[in-house]
């Protein structure tokens, strides 16, 4: 029988910091309504508004060539295989033009770990895009890609991040985090270790750049691994905020985004017998909101969980709906085939009782003429549609 969690929730609601033991007890509990209500309360205190934000951007996966193996990945191809690709700059620009035409403000660009791409390759890519689209936000790469550059170009993480920032990089997504505990990571991947992932993020913040942090769970991890993951993220954020307080400079994690492993077409998916449920997802999200007291935003992952569970997530601690993903290739290769356009997303946010608001990567609000006209589906809200059906 799980323990009474109310004293833990009261502690969080009184402004106390949760311990690893508290976090474990919450994740072991089935009392998700109370956990969700506490997370919702903390969400409203941290972001005291009825606004739920979203971003319009696109994932451009510039190459699927990858020289490591992750058993949870259905996207990568080994170097030299016939179905490998590398997008040309022209192809990337074409995708950016389409994104801008749809009201997009930035691009999330990530790829496999190409064995030949050195720092100069990335600098050329960024500086070309930045020169052509000076105000378009480049939210690109991930700690495993930075670690790969460090192996190829023999540079430390801070130097790499300084050079990529100078070439036009705005911020870095928290990809490749999966579970930040080597007991799990080593079983499912040959990419960078937990320490390397965290140290890349330290370097990102050191050079004054923001990033996000993620968690993909359900890859053979247990609750103790998820708790350690959250502790490590909170620790790196504490360091970033201490730097800001001391020097007035430095970046930080702007958001935390948990989601569940998407198993289709993956080697790991064929082996794993248990996968997280909707309840596991909502509990993880809510506990993240309660435990990560130093991170401003928690993002719902409708792309992996489906638009309806994404909507429910807005009452379990999430204040952001993530991206209208114009293009995505990695989780969709593993079976996440949820789709939503801006109208769908705004409608779901409105029906959950919030005001939808487009943002950019820096969480600045973006105002586009007529966006509010998208807040109904087929110009008829769901309540009216059901009346029409009953007639
Ligand atoms: S998850 Fe990334 S690093 Fe791992 S195999 Fe796929 S592309 Fe490569």
Give a written overview of the molecule.
With 391 residues, this protein is an alpha/beta fold. The chain has a domain at 6-55 and 172-390: Transcription Regulator spoIIAA. The chain contains 17 helices and 9 strands. The protein has helices spanning 6-13, 20-28, 32-46, 89-101, 119-132, 143-153, 157-167, 182-188, 194-206, 223-247, 267-271, 278-291, 302-305, 307-313, 330-333, 342-351, 382-390, and strands at residues 51-61, 106-110, 137-140, 171-172, 210-217, 253-260, 297-298, 320-325, 355-359. Strands 1, 2, 3, 8 and 9 form a 5-stranded parallel beta sheet that branches. Strands 4-5-6-7 form a 4-stranded parallel beta sheet. Strand 5 (210-217), helix 10 (223-247) and strand 6 (253-260) form a beta-alpha-beta unit. The longest helix has 25 residues, at 223-247. 48% of the residues are buried. The structure holds iron/sulfur cluster (SF4). The site of iron/sulfur cluster has 11 residues, from loops.
């Amino acid at each position: 029988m799980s323990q009474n969690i109310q004293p833990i929730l009261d502690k969080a609601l009184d402004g106390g910091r949760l311990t690893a033991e508290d976090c474990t007890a919450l994740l072991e509990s089935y009392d998700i309504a109370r956990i969700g209500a506490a997370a919702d309360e903390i969400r409203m205190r941290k972001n005291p508004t009825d606004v739920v934000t979203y971003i319009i951007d696109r994932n451009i996966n510039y190459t699927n060539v990858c020289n490591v193996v992750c058993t949870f990945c259905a996207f990568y191809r080994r170097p030299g295989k016939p179905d490998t690709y590398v997008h040309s700059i022209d192809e990337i620009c074409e995708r950016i033009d389409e994104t801008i035409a749809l009201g997009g403000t930035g691009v999330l660009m990530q790829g496999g770990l190409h064995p030949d791409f050195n720092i100069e390759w990335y600098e050329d890519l960024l500086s070309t895009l930045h020169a052509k689209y000076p105000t378009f936000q480049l939210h690109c790469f991930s700690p495993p890609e930075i670690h790969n550059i460090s192996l190829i170009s023999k540079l430390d993480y801070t130097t790499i991040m300084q050079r990529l920032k100078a070439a036009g990089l705005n911020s870095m997504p928290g990809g490749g985090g999966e579970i930040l505990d080597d007991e799990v990571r080593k079983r499912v991947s040959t990419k960078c270790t937990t320490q390397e992932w965290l140290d890349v993020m330290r370097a990102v913040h050191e050079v004054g750049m923001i990033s996000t942090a993620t968690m993909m769970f359900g890859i053979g991890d247990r609750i103790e691994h998820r708790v350690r993951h959250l502790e490590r993220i909170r620790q790196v954020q504490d360091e970033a905020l201490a730097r800001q307080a001391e020097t007035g400079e430095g970046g930080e994690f702007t958001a935390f985004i948990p989601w569940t492993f998407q198993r289709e077409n993956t080697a790991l998916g064929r082996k794993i017998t248990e996968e997280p449920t909707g309840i596991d997802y909502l509990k993880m999200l809510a506990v993240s909101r309660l435990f990560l007291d130093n991170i401003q935003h928690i993002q719902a992952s409708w792309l992996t969980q489906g638009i309806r569970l994404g909507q429910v997530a807005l009452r379990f601690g999430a204040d952001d709906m993530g991206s209208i993903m114009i293009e995505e290739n990695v989780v969709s290769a593993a079976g996440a085939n949820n789709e939503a356009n801006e109208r769908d997303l705004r409608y779901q946010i409105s029906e959950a009782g919030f005001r939808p608001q487009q943002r950019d990567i820096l969480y600045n609000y973006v105002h586009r003429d007529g966006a509010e006209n998208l807040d109904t589906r087929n110009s008829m809200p769901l309540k009216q549609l059901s009346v029409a059906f009953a007639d």
